[in-house]
Prior knowledge:
The protein is an alpha/beta fold. Helix 1 links the parallel strand 1 and strand 2 (34-41). Strands 3-2-1-4-5 form a 5-stranded parallel β-sheet, sandwiched between helices. It has a single domain, classed as Rossmann fold (3-Layer(aba) Sandwich). The protein has helices at residues 15-31, 47-52, 56-78, 96-103, 120-126, 128-136, 148-153, 157-160, and strands at residues 6-10, 34-41, 90-93, 109-114, 141-144. The radius of gyration is 19 Å and the shape is globular.
Amino acid sequence: MPDICRVVAGVGGSPASVHALRQAADLAGHNDALLMPVHAWVPPEGDIHERKHPCPQLRQLWQDDAWQRLWRAIDTAFGGLPAGITTQPVVRRGQPGQVLTGLARQPGDLLVIGTGRRGLLLRLACCRVSRYCQANAHCPVLAVPPPSLAQEAGYFLGGRAFWHRGIRATARLA
Length: 174
């Protein structure tokens, strides 16, 4: 791998993205590179609706919420900014895949993303950002699988969906 100058890490707040952020920080530390944790946001109703009916106050609330999500993920991963690593957190409006590939375009960039859920059907249905980044990035991409603890704890759909299937209330009150 060529010399790494910047490590751009996609941060969504999930355990998988926090795990990817930790991996990105390790790489940045080993290579004396800049760590850029990036959180992308889109208005809840979508860009088209928001552009038709703009509201500066709502736009500011959404952006503030995006910053809070990014700081919460950084706090979860490191308990604050990682020590000994130059870090530049970034929040951008836009689709996550497009924002990440747009930022990671310089020579020496490395894009680190979480791969999301395991399993063929779950990957096809849920991992649009990681697939987009792998297909469209102009730099090397490191796709970090979710932590095994998240799988064991049932965070992902495959573990949580069937926990309480056997428990049913059969008595009816008359």
